[in-house]
Amino acid sequence: MEIMVLVIAAFMAGILNAIAGGGSFLTFPALVFAGVPAIPANATSAVAVFPGYLSSTLGFKEELLSYDRRALSLLTVLSILGGVLGALLLMVTSSSVFNFIVPWLLLVATLLFAFDKSLRRWSRSESTESASEGQIESIGKKTATLVVTTYGGYFNGGLGIILLALFSGLGMRDMHMMNGLKNGLSFILSAASVTTLALAGLVYWQEAIIMMVAATIGGYAGAYLARLLPVHIVRAIVIAVGFGMSIAFFMR
């Protein structure tokens, strides 16, 4: 039963991530249901969805190659640093504290997903930079980038939406470029975070490998379904699952 739940959750997460995102709303609760403690479940969930970021990044190879090399290098460094810092923060968080904040993290991530368009519009209205710039030279922008990537290393839920909002605030307007950077930085910071958590022994590898395979298959299925299902229906499903899991963890 537990293996079946993990396989189904990871498969559906692969589909959701390929279409609209929000796969961690399924993988994390499924691992907790299977008896994995909350902190290792968070680490194992990050491993389960990690491979999908690379294939998604390669789909925007042309946009990434055209991006400013200096800015990309700085974003990469900050992503690695944030991924490690987030993982270290997770490691020093007690189980009781993490169990207390998990419902809030799920709820915030769900709200971010539900209002991502409004968030990105607000970010664009606050930005004074041109669409061609998107630089992060100022201390404030470097700090904001580090905070976002640290959040990603600590808790992956809603990371994509926050990154897109960040890029809008940096003055970016090209959605393909923003999606490419979002996937690329998610892969980089997740690699740093996953490596740190694995070295700390927080990853349940048997569950992680099972879910990685199922999520990869789900990703291929999601690419096909993306052409059939209206995006607003998939988004509604993700939001419903997110709120449902938030309520379940609050009650728990």
UniProtKB/TrEMBL annotation:
<dbReference type="InterPro" id="IPR052017">
    <property type="entry name" value="TSUP"/>
</dbReference>
<dbReference type="InterPro" id="IPR002781">
    <property type="entry name" value="TM_pro_TauE-like"/>
</dbReference>
<dbReference type="GO" id="GO:0005886">
    <property type="term" value="C:plasma membrane"/>
</dbReference>
<feature type="transmembrane region" description="Helical">
    <location>
        <begin position="184"/>
        <end position="204"/>
    </location>
</feature>
<dbReference type="Pfam" id="PF01925">
    <property type="entry name" value="TauE"/>
</dbReference>
<keyword id="KW-1003">Cell membrane</keyword>
<feature type="transmembrane region" description="Helical">
    <location>
        <begin position="72"/>
        <end position="91"/>
    </location>
</feature>
<feature type="transmembrane region" description="Helical">
    <location>
        <begin position="44"/>
        <end position="60"/>
    </location>
</feature>
<feature type="transmembrane region" description="Helical">
    <location>
        <begin position="209"/>
        <end position="226"/>
    </location>
</feature>
<feature type="transmembrane region" description="Helical">
    <location>
        <begin position="97"/>
        <end position="115"/>
    </location>
</feature>
<keyword id="KW-0812">Transmembrane</keyword>
<keyword id="KW-0813">Transport</keyword>
<feature type="transmembrane region" description="Helical">
    <location>
        <begin position="151"/>
        <end position="172"/>
    </location>
</feature>
<protein>
    <recommendedName>
        <fullName>Probable membrane transporter protein</fullName>
    </recommendedName>
</protein>
<feature type="transmembrane region" description="Helical">
    <location>
        <begin position="232"/>
        <end position="251"/>
    </location>
</feature>
<keyword id="KW-0472">Membrane</keyword>
<keyword id="KW-1133">Transmembrane helix</keyword>
<comment type="similarity">
    <text>Belongs to the 4-toluene sulfonate uptake permease (TSUP) (TC 2.A.102) family.</text>
</comment>
